[in-house]
Design brief:
498 residues, alpha+beta, eight-stranded mixed beta sheet, three-stranded mixed beta sheet, 17 helices, 13 strands, 38% helix
């Protein structure tokens, strides 16, 4: 990266952080700076913080030098803005995608995924790839033999995941937004842990075509982690849509989200809860939830504590069946790539082998029962949204783990995948059921743990009401004058670079 670092820096780090993605794009469009100058400063930022938080695996130096080399549209909404892709999900033609795995080292797809083409059309210049746990199946990108991604607020703690690297880079001010995927909270959880904004969109927003199974998109979706609501709105507006041959309809709002967020929502009915069946927030997180609920009330909304009438134990059990059977088939497909029958123990992390063993022979009857429980759960939440506009919960129920807390990692030797997932739900209680139901959820950096680490607060809505979440988030952003995290910055941050 020597040539990149030799180039002059076009703005101070304070000025850099003061711009969101659309702000930088506006300056590029006005001719005040070039997309290459912005990419060069982003690469300098990565170089300045990555040794401490390990969020970026690789920088594409040719894309830093030429913002169009990957095909980014200079006339797109983001005008060549540098962008980081999670090393999982949409492929980028000719670029490595190793999915946090030793098994996939050297894997270099030769074509763009459909969403990648949309990202490029939006004017986002893909300059590198960010860390993820093996195949995205974990709470944190933390395998010491591979890499350990650390929280920029305190490097003794995890970033959570699975969109780990993207979240720490946005949290540290390196870039205004970066790519993420969310199959059970993997955008919202690390965004919440790193002080960023994370939206899990409604089912039928982003495509996973053409390689990934359409049935995966029933629970898993794509998106971004950002610092401002308008950047998230612009990303969804410009990157959404289905590829030819999608198995389900892909929807568009009547009015673009960027337009919707200019106005405050009408006074809303907001149901607040954290006691979900066998899981509940810690006392401190519950207290922070109450404080945030009172803040929403001060904005003119009706707020009330409500326990949703949902069979949570049945819902989490169905989600576990879904994860184990889906991930087992992911592993099966990877084995077929190399003509293998079983996962090599030196190339797969232990829990991913356990998941494959316990999920590969799940019967159609078991999956059908799972789908019935999905249906029951979705109908129950649908009933909640007949009476309430918004559901407010914490993003996580427990404290952010310290580095080395193996109980949530796929490097653990825990023998039962069922037990492992049950423990995960105790931590991530409030995110996975959005994936089950297809509903949107958005983590906002409005609270803090007792030790000062960020704590996301999540707003949920009925399927297709993503615009309402964004409207509410934009109202909050205006009310706090854009000062998320109560105006605090992490210890590792670009504004602290020399």
């Amino acid at each position: 990266m020597t040539d990149t670092l030799d180039k002059p820096q076009v703005m101070s780090w304070d000025e850099w952080f003061a711009h969101d993605g659309l702000g930088l794009a506006a300056r590029i469009k006005a001719g005040e700076i070039t997309a290459e100058e912005v990419a060069s400063q982003a690469a300098r930022a990565i170089n300045g913080v990555n040794s401490e938080i390990s969020g970026v695996i690789e920088v594409f130096e040719d894309a830093v030098a030429d913002s169009t080399v990957n095909g980014a549209n200079p006339q797109g909404a983001f005008a060549g803005l540098p962008f980081l892709m999670k090393d999982l999900g949409p492929t980028v033609a000719g670029r490595l995608q190793e999915q946090g795995s030793f098994y996939l080292q050297g894997n270099r797809p030769q074509s763009d995924a459909f969403l990648t083409t949309r990202i490029k059309e939006a004017g986002l210049n893909i300059i590198g790839r960010t860390t993820t746990p093996e195949f995205g199946c974990c709470s944190s990108a933390e395998n010491p033999a591979m890499y350990v991604t650390r929280n920029p607020w305190d490097t003794g703690f995890t970033s959570c995941g699975s969109s780990a690297g993207s979240s720490v880079m946005v949290g540290a001010g390196v870039l205004p937004l970066a790519h993420g995927t969310d199959g059970g909270g993997s955008i919202r959880i690390p965004a919440g842990c790193c002080g960023a904004i994370g939206l899990k969109s409604s089912r039928g927003t982003f495509s996973i075509a053409p390689v990934n199974s359409d049935f995966t998109s029933v629970v898993s979706t794509q998106g971004c982690i950002s610092r401002t609501v308008r950047d998230t709105a612009a990303f969804v507006d410009n990157c959404r849509g289905g590829a030819p041959g999608e198995f389900m309809p892909f929807w568009h709002p009547e009015k673009p989200f960027l337009e919707q967020i200019k106005a405050d929502p009408k006074p809303l009915k907001i149901a607040v809860s954290h006691e979900w069946g066998p899981y509940a927030a810690t006392p401190h997180i519950a207290a922070e939830l109450t404080r945030v609920a009172e803040f929403f009330e001060s904005l003119g909304h009706h707020v009330e504590f409500v326990t949703p009438e949902v069979d949570f134990e049945k819902a989490y059990a169905a989600q576990t069946t879904c994860y184990i059977s889906n991930f087992a088939q992911v592993v099966n497909n990877l084995l077929r790539m190399k003509g293998l029958e079983t996962p090599p123990e030196d190339l797969f992390e232990p829990m991913n082998i356990r998941i494959w063993e316990q999920g590969k022979d799940i019967s159609y009857t078991t999956r059908a029962d799972m789908q019935l429980d999905f249906n029951t759960t979705a109908r129950a939440f649908g009933a909640v949204y007949q009476d309430w506009d918004i559901l407010l919960t914490p993003t996580t129920a427990r404290e952010t783990p310290a580095i080395g807390t193996t109980e949530y990692l796929t490097i653990t030797e825990t023998p039962s995948a069922l037990d492992w997932f049950q423990n995960l739900w105790g931590f991530f209680a409030y995110t996975p059921l959005n994936n089950l139901c297809g509903t949107p959820g958005m983590s906002l950096p409005l609270a803090a743990h007792a030790n000062g680490l960020p704590l996301g607060m999540q707003v949920h809505a009925a399927i297709g009401n993503d615009g309402l979440l964004l409207q509410l988030a934009a109202q909050v952003e205006r009310a706090i004058d854009g000062k998320w995290n109560q105006g605090h910055l992490p210890k590792v941050h670009v504004t602290k670079l020399g």
